[in-house]
């Protein structure tokens, strides 16, 4: 009976499961604080003279990604809770511009990875995917009989003109896209705003790519970088979301441009419902290749322990 009463006195354990990316808020930046788990909650603690003075709760399971800036410490328990709930942790430099590391909340499933790799390795299939990316980015089909390199050149010219158009629209002095990720202060105001804005977009795009079960490194237009596919997908939404707000922010000459940009990004991601669009767009882009994801081999060994049913996206790992 003693064992029974002890068991009954234990608080009920609520199973934690990732919720779909489309139902989450986009991102939270944390700096100068210690992140831990207290009473089952994900909290940021402000310490004064070694004592906990203030706690701020973060709804970790309903956030796509949490950006951890310099001055932030995080406990093992907090990292584990973020992993279980499928929230991407990204350790970044000042203003989120430089990426140091990321804690993967999901990742490439074998079937999705083989599908993505087959599309990227076959030149004909890759061209179909790139043409679809071009069409979704610019709202029209690209010229026929063009290679990936030629389409990349056409894209570059259009992007340059879009930057110039936005600079005129917001009356911002524009000398071109120039920045040094190792020296945040070396860039002019508009380039600093653009760097801060695109880093926000890359963060939530990476979270979506991982949640969908694909590999961030296997790109189609971009290649050779750890986030090539993230850049491919983010570019589709960039000029409809973060680039105009970066120019708009720069035109105001704010004293804290990175903070102004983050707030604006958070708002525009919510207003455009961007997290609801990214994963369906990924699937639509890859479907342009015209092939089906490969079925598992007939002699494939099933998992020894069946995966529990989940409500999250396909790339989210179960507990």
| CATH class wording of the largest domain | Mainly Alpha
SS strand fraction: 5-15%
Helix-strand makeup class = alpha/beta
Helix segment count?
10
The main sheet comes to: 4 strands, mixed
Named CATH topology of the largest domain: Four Helix Bundle (Hemerythrin (Met), subunit A)
Distance between the termini: 32 Å
CATH architecture of the largest domain: Up-down Bundle
User: Which outline best applies?
Assistant: flat
Rg to the nearest angstrom?
Answer: 22 Å
What would CATH call the homologous superfamily of the largest domain? CRISPR-associated endonuclease Cas1, C-terminal domain
* Major beta sheet, strand line-up: 1-5-7-8
